[in-house]
Amino acid sequence: MRLYDGTFHDPLPASNELTNEEKQNAVKEAFLFAWNGYKTYSWGFDENRPVSNSPLNSRNGWGATIVDSLDTLYIMGLMDEFKEAREFVAAIDWGSTNDHVQVFETCIRYVGGLLSAYDLSHDYMFAAKAADLVERLLPAFTESPSGIPYQYVDFKTGKAVKSKYPGGSSCLAEVGAMQLEFTRLSQITGDWKYHNIGQRVYNSLDTMKLLHPGLYPHLINPETGAPASSFVTWGGMGDSFYEYLIKQYIFSQSKDDHKKKMMTDSVDALKRYMMQSPKNHDDLLFISSLQEGIDLPVMDELACFAPSALLLSARFIDGMADIENDAKRLLNGCYTAWASTRTGIAPEVFGWVSKDGSTIGDLTRHKERLAKQFGVFQFDPGYILRPETLESIYYFHQLTQEQTYQDMSWEIFNALHTYCRANSGFSGIDSVDTFFPKWDNRQESFVFAETFKYLYLMWDEPTNSPRFPLDQWVFNTEGHPFRIVNITPPTSDDYSSSSSPLSTVAQDTTPPTQSISEDLWNWLKKNMDSLGLVTDSLF
């Protein structure tokens, strides 16, 4: 029996009724359903609107869904689709946009997707397109007196553009979550200016006066590098910054002591000031936000990346093993935010009642019942197909091999199948706590890059031989895997923040000896000067 006049879908069989192969194939079918809907109605645009079957440009019109999907296509073995996507990417003209380019989103989606496609396929074109694009993004960094990048670049003028945040501030999550991409590009090209420019961000952060060392304000003045707010969050506008601290440390093969200390300080402060269990639910942990040092008991689904970041810290940083239990309780909290709703889908923002009885907003009778029974209630009830809880579940399964995490991921996929599968793809919904939610007609590119990818990888066989060992690959914040290679900056202290001005940053022009062929190096150096379009004739 269908739930709502045929609009929604019958649930899939329970996890224990299907083999891992059957579950992985179900995820692949869902991906292809959304991919073919995009191809049919919106090819070349950034997104497909999955309810109205119509295109939308939200990321400068370069085909964000195509670039963000490259590695997922490759991982799923969809080689015909990958080849078609490659042909599209080869013809992208980054200079074609008339809109300001948001540096962070462009970096994690486009640059991240291209670098991952290169690492998987070893196709020179992807690396060249990434280098071309990053060159155009650099004014956001080089025009900043403090090293904190501006939010936008105007590709027509080549000038940086301030954000619309108060005072033109830059966002913590954005300025601190492009370094993996820049470092990987430096490794591939042998030009270390990208790495060094990315690391300049930490000049300002290292000298910033903080109320709680390790916890940074969500807005920063790019002119001065000073805090532009007193709000601290591991959710939206803060999240990826903390994620990249531990991931940069792992990516450096445990050589980046600067990021190790930053992550250790951040986790210590997180545990002391922001982690809390809801009243009568000690098995759960949540992360509050801080406003001038006062904690606010609300948490974004975006912050549900944190269990994976804490787990990685426990496994890769000596002396942090004790945080693993907190990471597990935090994941329990995130998963409960999913399991406690009528749809089985987590809200964008959820709240709880603190042990002292404090909460945010007025508690309706329904929210009070949820808080008492589950420890959590919906604060913003919408959902836009976010992947963060799935991301953390993936890491926990990879590092523990416990069946329970596969079961969790299947329950989430089943809920998405039931309520979010629309006419030509998957749509966000307006409320997770009704059996009859309304679709929002949006399917962002991260659905292909992250949501489907983490679900698919959960069912890889054999489970004791992961496709992406976490000491050999690092996923960027958009779910794009980068290969860890033994190529380090020219000097040993380049992984820590450098006080050198950009004009004197050393640029290594010697072909690297690992991970890249001399032919690729020569080809990139030749074509980087012109920043022209890359065509198939070059290969």
From TrEMBL:
<dbReference type="InterPro" id="IPR050749">
    <property type="entry name" value="Glycosyl_Hydrolase_47"/>
</dbReference>
<dbReference type="GO" id="GO:0005975">
    <property type="term" value="P:carbohydrate metabolic process"/>
</dbReference>
<keyword id="KW-0326">Glycosidase</keyword>
<keyword id="KW-0479">Metal-binding</keyword>
<comment type="similarity">
    <text>Belongs to the glycosyl hydrolase 47 family.</text>
</comment>
<dbReference type="InterPro" id="IPR036026">
    <property type="entry name" value="Seven-hairpin_glycosidases"/>
</dbReference>
<dbReference type="GO" id="GO:0016020">
    <property type="term" value="C:membrane"/>
</dbReference>
<dbReference type="GO" id="GO:0005509">
    <property type="term" value="F:calcium ion binding"/>
</dbReference>
<feature type="compositionally biased region" description="Low complexity">
    <location>
        <begin position="491"/>
        <end position="504"/>
    </location>
</feature>
<feature type="active site" description="Proton donor">
    <location>
        <position position="348"/>
    </location>
</feature>
<feature type="disulfide bond">
    <location>
        <begin position="304"/>
        <end position="334"/>
    </location>
</feature>
<dbReference type="GO" id="GO:0036503">
    <property type="term" value="P:ERAD pathway"/>
</dbReference>
<dbReference type="GO" id="GO:0005783">
    <property type="term" value="C:endoplasmic reticulum"/>
</dbReference>
<protein>
    <recommendedName>
        <fullName>alpha-1,2-Mannosidase</fullName>
        <ecNumber>3.2.1.-</ecNumber>
    </recommendedName>
</protein>
<feature type="active site">
    <location>
        <position position="239"/>
    </location>
</feature>
<feature type="active site">
    <location>
        <position position="388"/>
    </location>
</feature>
<dbReference type="Pfam" id="PF01532">
    <property type="entry name" value="Glyco_hydro_47"/>
</dbReference>
<feature type="active site" description="Proton donor">
    <location>
        <position position="105"/>
    </location>
</feature>
<keyword id="KW-0378">Hydrolase</keyword>
<feature type="binding site">
    <location>
        <position position="477"/>
    </location>
    <ligand>
        <name>Ca(2+)</name>
    </ligand>
</feature>
<keyword id="KW-0106">Calcium</keyword>
<dbReference type="GO" id="GO:0004571">
    <property type="term" value="F:mannosyl-oligosaccharide 1,2-alpha-mannosidase activity"/>
</dbReference>
<dbReference type="InterPro" id="IPR012341">
    <property type="entry name" value="6hp_glycosidase-like_sf"/>
</dbReference>
<dbReference type="InterPro" id="IPR001382">
    <property type="entry name" value="Glyco_hydro_47"/>
</dbReference>
<keyword id="KW-1015">Disulfide bond</keyword>
<comment type="pathway">
    <text>Protein modification; protein glycosylation.</text>
</comment>
<feature type="region of interest" description="Disordered">
    <location>
        <begin position="491"/>
        <end position="513"/>
    </location>
</feature>
